[in-house]
């Protein structure tokens, strides 16, 4: 088997990134450590590959499930700016909410790009592990201990949302589920259910639905058949679709039902009514994911594990006091 920089690092008792610096930028390493690394490399017969800069294609791919979803706008911009500063061109690919399309795309990209950023990947765990064997990558909004990842942590914002709804008198709260293939959707429902039960309230699961306004319209028709007086949607597009459909049915928001979204996308603040939503810094998520990938491409050992981005609740006009007679909204809606 070919001796790697990681083998040298283990023999010398240093990090793999230190091996890279000792061989490529010796001025950054003290002479005693550098000599220990050189001795370990000689003993193991380590032959470093050609410098990464010579091998680079200068391309990094960003894969998103739906390029029309405003949630990804800030991620696309921030990753592109970070990569451009480091000398890379970003290749944007829409995978159409399909794990199969995503896996096929990754197979085609091997050898064509230097690395990949996966935003809200729809790959299951085995497919994700397989992808890491082909290409250096980082993931956004997916937690994986063996892959560098950045997660917009919904938990704090969700706790604030449930506290807010409880204070308004809501006792039965629905979660409007997104795509079943989404890790983020399963995680958000799990956290939602735990928080609602912890507040001694009643959780209701509605869905799954496509994370689009059309999916929200279908969700609204199902929502009014439940006893929930408030809902938290998987994302803002679903929530905005719910608002639009409820208005068509003559059901008032927030007088008859309160609606909370997730992500604070462009347009959430001028929906009708303006949407209460859970917000996180998507620009920061994009910058961090790109920076971690760039570090790997520059020869540093991948820093696996998850960086968390906190969230908070933005209260707008789509939430209000629980109605005293929630059944009346079903009669109003027909």
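Q: What amino acid sequence fits the structure above?
A:
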């Amino acid at each position: 088997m070919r001796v790697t920089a990681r083998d040298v690092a283990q023999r010398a008792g240093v990090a793999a990134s230190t091996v890279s610096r000792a061989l490529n930028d010796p001025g950054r390493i003290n002479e005693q450590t550098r000599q220990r690394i050189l001795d370990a490399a000689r003993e193991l017969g380590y032959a470093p590959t050609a410098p990464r800069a010579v091998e680079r294609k200068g391309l990094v791919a960003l894969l998103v499930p739906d390029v029309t979803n405003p949630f990804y706008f800030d991620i696309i911009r921030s990753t592109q700016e970070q990569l451009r500063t480091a000398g890379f061109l970003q290749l944007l690919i829409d995978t159409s909410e399909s794990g199969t399309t995503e896996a096929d795309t990754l197979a085609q990209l091997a050898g064509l790009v230097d690395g990949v950023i996966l935003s809200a990947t729809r790959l299951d765990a085995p497919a994700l592990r397989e992808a890491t064997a082909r290409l250096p990558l980082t993931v956004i909004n997916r937690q994986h201990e063996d892959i560098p990842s950045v997660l917009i942590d919904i938990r704090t914002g969700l706790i604030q949302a449930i506290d807010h709804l409880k204070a308004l008198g809501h006792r039965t709260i629905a979660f409007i589920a997104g795509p079943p293939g989404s890790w983020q959707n399963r995680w958000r429902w799990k956290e939602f259910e735990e928080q609602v039960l912890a507040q001694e309230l009643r959780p209701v699961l509605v869905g799954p639905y496509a994370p689009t306004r059309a999916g929200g319209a279908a969700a609204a028709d199902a929502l009014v058949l439940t006893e929930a007086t408030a809902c938290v949607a998987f994302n803002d597009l679903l929530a905005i679709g719910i608002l639009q459909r409820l208005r068509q049915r003559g059901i008032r928001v927030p007088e008859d039902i309160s609606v909370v979204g997730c992500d604070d996308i462009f347009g959430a603040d001028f929906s009708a009514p303006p949407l209460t939503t859970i917000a996180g810094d998507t620009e920061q998520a994009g910058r961090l994911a790109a920076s971690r990938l760039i570090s790997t491409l520059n020869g540093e050992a991948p820093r696996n594990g998850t960086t968390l981005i906190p969230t908070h609740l933005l209260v707008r006009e789509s939430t209000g006091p629980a109605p005293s007679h929630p059944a009346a909204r079903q009669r109003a809606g027909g």
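Q: And what stands out in the fold?
A: The two ends are 70 Å apart (CA to CA).
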